[in-house]
Amino acid sequence: MISYKDSGVNIEEGYKTVNLIKKHSKKTFIPGVINDIGSFAGMFELSGYKNPVLVSGTDGVGTKLEIAYKMKRYDTVGIDCTAMCVNDILCHGAKPLFFLDYIACGKLDAQIAESLVRGVSVGCLQAGCALIGGETAEMPGFYRDGEYDIAGFAVGIVEKDSIVDGSTIQDGDILIGIESSGIHSNGYSLVRKLIKNLDMDFNGKKMGDVLLEPTKIYVKTILSLMKRFNIKGMAHITGGGFIENIPRMFRDEFTAIIHRDSFKVHDIFKYIMSLGVNEDEMYNTFNMGIGFVICVDPKMADEIVNEIERMGDRAYKIGYVQAGGAGVCIK
């Protein structure tokens, strides 16, 4: 007789995985969660809102995962998975409520799956949202053994009259950039082409560990700012770097004028540039040291920068909004 296990799918390893990850999801439960991991669907009860709008986002970690395979370190990419989703929905002023993950592999290893979900859990705790469900798919012959893919889905909430949509942005408004933690989760196809030695020393660390530095989660900082200040627009600097992402906060025709000497470019980006990537390509691929950008009234800019730094993040006035045209001008 032939069993499912003979085809390469180990159901018992799946059961073990679920039991291992339950403790990580429970740490994230916030008011509103009304069932446990293991049901057919996660449930979340909404309360305390007058005219709520649900805001959703989904994303993955991309080819950064290959660095994790080679380093045999899987905990940080789970944080990346959460960050890529919650930072996106944050751009519209949404508070993340709950998160679901999807893990796919060729051969399931419960310990590796637990490490991945542990990272997702850490990310959810940083974002203040609950990990209420997910899926682990074992697909032998489709993924090579030892390879994993991970993606996530976040749902947040915002009062309809508090949605940040760029509609109030005006000529002369100031752009404030909040520092990134490193490369985050974009541009790794280029990174992997250029950097082969993950064991080399880079500023006192293994290069592989530098490349696995997880994406910063900006949720608590931004939600705190929104209680005190009028934030007109926001951009998460992901794939496409400055050039593609900053204009996404504009509803009308504006140009973002960015001063290249206004913030510190991380050493890892300077190193990548030294390997033959020109500066224009860098700003169109990477975050260059700025992971999140907000647009504010000039009268509030200095106070907002001071408040961000009081909360523990580095922030810079990186430029301003100019009426007309469309896109980004870096000078």
From TrEMBL:
One of its GO terms (biological process) is adenine biosynthetic process. It catalyses: 2-formamido-N(1)-(5-O-phospho-beta-D-ribosyl)acetamidine + ATP = 5-amino-1-(5-phospho-beta-D-ribosyl)imidazole + ADP + phosphate + H(+). GO terms for molecular function: ATP binding; phosphoribosylamine-glycine ligase activity; phosphoribosylformylglycinamidine cyclo-ligase activity. Residues 53-158 form the PurM-like N-terminal domain. InterPro entries: PurM-like_C_dom, PurM-like_C_sf, PurM-like_N, PurM-like_N_sf, PurM_cligase. Keywords: ATP-binding, Cytoplasm, Ligase, Nucleotide-binding, Purine biosynthesis. Its EC number is 6.3.3.1. It is found in: Cytoplasm. GO terms for cellular component: cytosol. Transmembrane segments: none annotated. CDD domains: PurM (cd02196). Pathway: Purine metabolism; IMP biosynthesis via de novo pathway; 5-amino-1-(5-phospho-D-ribosyl)imidazole from N(2)-formyl-N(1)-(5-phospho-D-ribosyl)glycinamide: step 2/2. It is an enzyme of class 6 (ligase). Residues 170-327 form the PurM-like C-terminal domain. The keyword Transmembrane helix does not apply. Belongs to the AIR synthase family. This is Phosphoribosylformylglycinamidine cyclo-ligase. The lineage of its organism: Bacteria, Bacillati, Bacillota, Clostridia, Eubacteriales.
